[in-house]
Every structure is written in structure tokens, then in C-alpha cells.
Amino acid sequence: MEKIPILRRLPRRMILCLHFTFLILGACALFTLYLEGGNAVTSTSSNDLTTDDSTYKTPNKLLQPAKIKIVPPDWSWISKGISLTSNDTRKLNSYEFIKNTSSHHVPTLHNTKYIYISTSTTSTNRPKRFTYGVVTKRPTPTPVPDTCQTYSMKDFKLILLWTSFFGYWEYLPKENFKYCSRCRNCRVTTDRSRLKESDAIVFHARDMSLSDLPPVRYPHQRWVFYCLESPPYSDFPGLQHMKNMFNWTMTYRTDSDILAQYGSITRNYPSRKLDMQSLYSSFTNKSKSVVWMSSHCPTDGGRDSYVAELRKYIDVDVYGTCGTSICPEGATEKCLQEFAQKYKFFLAFENTICKDYITEKFFRTLKYDIIPVVFGGAVYDRFAPPISYIDALSFRSPKHLAFFLSGVGKDFKMYSNYFRWRKDYSVKLANQKECDLCALLHRTDLKPSSYYDVRKWWISESHCRTWKPKR
């Protein structure tokens, strides 16, 4: 031992190795228990989970689509109240409905009334949402499969407009169908006596009333919720009672069944040449900085408060009922042309800060030599050409925005960057909602479904909020 000292230290090293081995095994065991505990948490029933609406404040987080509830194909919603008999008050589970065509007993499920009509042979369901991707990749919605005869009116589908659009009845003009690239064999009527033969019934949200609804929905029909106004200005008490009433939605929301935006962006092929000399001449001739034109104040989104704060740091001329200057009624385009000659920035502020809500004031401004400053709840990169606007809500405060606008207004190189998108993109103040609705009505590969609570989808899931200055 004395001649070989390493043998004397061997037992001690063996003990240390054993200790180290036991520590590793213990750590592995603890890690295994941790993984099992994690799996137990993730397997929790979905009924026990809640969603925090505040997550929408991060633009990159996507919202889950509205939940749907399947409606049996041989049942239809009825708007008139019918008293239930004692035999009809039994508990309804798993769609256990009463089918009695002679007496028309009407069972109730979650305040929804159904009536048996006949067995449906052509049933459809809510189609996949039309979604706009980033405009640099795909500026148009996913096309609907061509399932109809493009140039013929044979086997046409009839669309009944049950309500007006603020008193106007030509909001789905029949002439528009001849410009559809795929589906043209649809007709539009306002004659309510043709309810039974109609394939789609369109309701404009702002003109709807519980006291004025079709007496019955036939199995082959699709009822369409149509709205272009933001939720704070289109909600009404009766909407919460319309359970399982609407099959499709036609709004500006990108998760609508039919997308009906105020404008769209298309790609230029080939690219156009940008006249930088004319743009520079326009820039040097502008004598003022910021202009805002509005006829609605105060608003739910708080844009008037934002502008009031902004005016402390930069000059803002206000036109319309919210200011002292006036743009004559019906002369909006003429006023915008004059603004583009004098001002460098136009406040294209929306009256609400809601999901996907962008009106024509933004798309229209892009056509002029003036930079739009936006204020809204949409992720504008999904709808607008790259570097075509300035987002007010991306700045810490109106003061920071004012300093940025002052800098851009003095530097033509920075200013001109907001117009270079015109080489590759163009703006249209139109959409193809009529064509998409017509194409969907001709599809026979879809199953019946409806929105159980369209008010929840339209109001709660729009995540509207109000801007307030920090104190």
C-alpha cells in the first residue's frame, strides 16, 4: 500500500463516484415526475380552461375562430313566439326535437325556436373563412371553388334582401354579378313574397328588428348577417336573442364567412415607374403639416381625445363638425385633392379601435400624395402595402408621434419612402362579396351549421377598446 499510494485512495474515489451516480439518478427521477405532472395539466378538460381577452392586445397572437353549433338539416328557426304545450316541455338533450308537421309544436333549446319543415336535400355549412395574407405574398382572399355555371343563368340562386342598408336597397346590385370571374348565376330581390324560393336571406345589422323577421326559415336557406359598421355602433338588444339564427357572416372581419372590406390592395404586374420628380415638386410646395376631417365626435375609440393631445405639439387643421373648417357635403374627393396639395399628413383615424376595422378613409387616402396616419384596432400590415402609412398607436404618446411627423415632414428621403409601394401595388375601393356569396350558394359539399351566439362573435370577440391619455 505504501509503495502504491493510488490503491489507498481508491476506496474514497469509489464512494464519491457512487454518490455522484445516486445524485444523477435522483435528478432523473425528479425530472420524470415533473414531466408527468406537466402532462396531467395539459390534458385538463377544455371546459375548465378560460381565455383572457387581453391576449389580443399583442397583434401577432391569432384569435380562435367562433365556435359553431350544428343544426339538424330538417329544422329551421322561427321568429314568432309560439306557446309550448305541456308535452313539449320535456328536457331536450342531444338534439332530441319534436317532429310534428301538423300541429307545429316548437321546442326551445337555449332560447332558440325551431320548426320542422321537411327533409333537406341540399344542405350547406359555414365555409372556410376567406383570409387575406400579408399583401407581399397574397393580396386576395382564397378563392371559392367554381361550382356554378359561369355564363349561364340556369339553376340560378335567389338572394332576398330582407332589410335595407340605411334605407338604401341597391347594396347588392344585380349588375355586379356580370363582373364576377367565377359565379354569375345569382339574382337579387326585395320581394318578401318570394321568401320560400329564396336561397339566401340577407340582414343588415343596423336595420334589423326582432319585430320584423321572416316567419320561418326553410331548410335550404342560408341566413346572412351583414354589417360594415363597427360593433359599438351596430349592437342592438335583439341581437342577443338571435341564437342559432345566422348561418353565414358577411362583414369586414377577416374571420367572416364572406369578406366585405371597404377596399383592397392588388399587386402590379409588371411594376410601375414612380415619378420621383413630381413627388419632390409636390413635397416642396406643401405649406402645412397635418389635416384631419371628421364629422363624428366624440367617438367610442377616443380619437378626438388623441387629436386634442396631438395638437399640443404639432399644427393640425380640423375639417368637419369636429373642427372649424368645412368640407362641403358630397365633395370629399375634391377636398382630399386640395389637402394633398397643401398638407403632408392626413389623419385617417377610425371612430373605434376594433379588430380588423378599417374604413374607406384609409384606402381612399392612399390614392393621393399625402401620407395617411392611422388610428385603429387592425393589424394594418395585413391590409396595406408595406411602408404606406404611419400607425399612431405604435407610438408611446401623441407627443412622440408629433416629433416623428415633424422629422418626416422635413426630410424628403424619409417622406418619399412612404410612396415607393406604388411601384408594386394598387388600391381598389371595392370587394367581391356578391361573387363570393353567389359561389358559396352553389356549393353542395357543405354541411349545415349556424352561429349559436353571433353577438358573442361580433361584439365580444371584436375586442374593441378606447384610447385614453396617460396621467
TrEMBL record:
It is a single-pass type II membrane protein. Residues 284-457 form the Fucosyltransferase C-terminal domain. The keyword Glycosyltransferase applies. It is an enzyme of class 2 (transferase). Its main location: Golgi. Its EC number is 2.4.1.-. Keywords: Glycoprotein, Glycosyltransferase, Golgi apparatus, Membrane, Signal-anchor, Transferase, Transmembrane, Transmembrane helix. It is found in: Golgi apparatus, Golgi stack membrane. GO terms for cellular component: Golgi cisterna membrane. InterPro entries: Glyco_tran_10_C (IPR055270), Glyco_tran_10_N (IPR031481), Glyco_trans_10 (IPR001503), GT10-like_C_sf (IPR038577). SUPFAM superfamilies: UDP-Glycosyltransferase/glycogen phosphorylase. GO terms for molecular function: fucosyltransferase activity. The keyword Transmembrane helix applies. Belongs to the glycosyltransferase 10 family. This is Fucosyltransferase. The lineage of its organism: Eukaryota, Metazoa, Ecdysozoa, Arthropoda, Chelicerata.
